Amino acid sequence: MVESLGTQPEVKSYRTRTMIAAPIEVVWNTLVKTDEALPFFFGGVCQTKAGLKPGAKMRMAHTSGKIAMVVGEVLAFDPPHRYSHTFRMTNIDEPPATIIYELTEVAGGTQFDLIIENAVAGSKLEKQMVSGQTYISQNLKALIETGRPAFSGRMLMLMGPILPLFAPKVQRIENWPLD
């Protein structure tokens, strides 16, 4: 469930909280992988030049290497509790928002909070991010607890090879360098 965290008229913040039955280190290591397609991130591969650390540019690229889906700058990287970065979808020309992943060790597993901050109220980016929160949380949970993503993640991974065919030119990877 997506919870609104209060707002100013022009920006909004949202939180999704999910319990994952796994040690915090397992959740963290799955969340920050940079060497494979991540079904909970819509099949994207997290790419950086010098690793995930504050100030580093990052992007979520399609497995074909032809398009960048999301770009941002790492704001915080505090294993295994907090990772955040700016978030801009490459097909939406709007100011970036901030995404925060918070992990807390609890009895029986890990509490995973996915927080969106600074989303411009009513923007296309806000709508896309809020609709993606539940997808990300459910697929991360399913992948860790069962070894495979939820049904929605499996379907998206099946469709993955054809997605670049429908991507606008603005999403081409050469338009979104990591330098």
Mind sketching the topology for me?
Elements: E1 2-7, E2 11-20, H1 24-31, E3 45-48, E4 57-61, E5 68-78, E6 82-89, E7 97-106, E8 109-120, H2 124-146, H3 151-159
Antiparallel strand pairs: 1-2, 2-8, 3-4, 4-5, 5-6, 6-7, 7-8
List keywords for this structure.
alpha+beta; 179 residues; 8 strands; eight-stranded antiparallel β-sheet
Overview of this protein structure:
The protein is built from 3 helices and 8 strands; from the N terminus they run ββαββββββαα. By secondary structure, the chain is of the alpha+beta class. The radius of gyration is 16 Å and the shape is globular. 31% of the residues are buried. The model has no long low-confidence stretch (mean pLDDT 92).
